[in-house]
Write a structure and sequence with these properties.
The protein is α/β, with parallel strands linked by helices. The protein is 51% helix and 12% strand. It contains 13 helices and 6 strands. A 6-stranded mixed beta sheet has the order 3-2-1-4-5-6, sandwiched between helices. Strand 4 and strand 5 form a beta hairpin. The termini are far apart. The mean pLDDT is 95.
């Protein structure tokens, strides 16, 4: 079997989790290979995401590592079995790899939380808002390139628009709602769309107002995607070269706590809708 030249973030996550299990068991790659009856390079390739692993071998590895969490092992098996080729593959070679990994993560997510302070979250954006944003951030992009990014962002919304949408919760700072990424008409249309979307039972939008005392959480912007089990949750944050995926268990705990804290000080959903409606009327 040919080795993968560019593993996806999902393939790498499976690989990393298997390495973590081995290290927690105190085994070297050579020792794990001996127990499994394969060569040490095969274990290294599996743990680098360069090759897949069968369900049988994965369960044997988990048994050799004495992993007691059977639900977690079943979730890893589900990842190993998955052969989904989604719409995002159409953008391979056209957009950087992390922007293919993001919709794949969203496709498999069990729920999604967003916290944003400067922009309306991507899943809630209108085409005009996204177009103005991409055009401003990337002034060197030709129109065709901008439209490709806009199309990609709009297609990502399928996870909250499909017949079986994921539960989605967004906490948005008032600053993000007031900043006019486009013109006045585009800004009003954006706020109107947020109001329309949060009428859906699976979508919750909360607002953090400017006049909140003692709020120091503006550095906690994030995308939090729930996995099949909590150990397989993922946080996504903006980096210099695109989205950065965070999956260490200690970091996940930190971001769960941050989300709960920001959510706790935000307005309740009904008050948030009234707040957004008032902003839209002011435009």
């Amino acid at each position: 079997m040919a080795l993968r030249s560019e593993p996806t973030a999902r393939q790498m996550r499976l690989a990393v989790e298997l390495r973590r299990l081995r290290e927690a068991a105190g085994l070297t790659a050579r020792e794990a290979a001996t127990l499994l009856g394969v060569s040490a390079p095969q274990i290294s390739q599996i743990e680098a995401g360069l090759t897949g692993v069968s369900e049988k071998r994965l369960r044997r590895l988990a048994a050799n590592y004495s992993c007691p969490d059977l639900e977690f092992v079943d979730a890893l098996v589900g990842m190993a079995r998955d052969r989904t080729t989604g719409w995002w593959e159409e953008y391979r070679g056209l957009l950087p790899m992390p922007f293919l990994d993001l919709p794949e993560l969203e496709h498999h997510a069990s729920y999604r939380w967003d916290v944003d302070f400067l922009h309306v979250p991507g899943l809630l954006q209108t085409e005009d808002y996204a177009r103005a944003l991409f055009s401003y951030v990337n002034p060197e992009f030709p129109e065709e390139e901008v439209e490709r990014w806009v199309e990609h962002r709009m297609r990502r919304k399928v996870v909250i628009e499909r017949p079986d949408p994921i539960p989605y919760e967004a906490v948005i700072h008032e600053a993000a709602l007031r900043i006019r990424v486009g013109d006045r008409t585009a800004a009003r249309a954006q706020l109107t769309q947020v109001l329309e979307l949060c009428e859906a039972s699976h979508i919750t939008v909360r607002v953090v107002p400017f006049d909140l005392d003692g709020f120091g959480g503006a550095g906690s912007a994030m995308v939090y995607a729930g996995g099949p089990v909590p150990r397989l949750d993922t946080v996504v944050r903006d980096g210099l070269n695109g989205p950065v995926f965070i999956d260490a268990e200690s970091q996940l705990d930190r971001y769960r706590t941050l989300f709960r804290r920001v959510k706790a000080v935000s307005l309740e959903p009904s008050r948030s809708r009234d707040f957004i409606h008032k902003l839209a009327k002011e435009l």
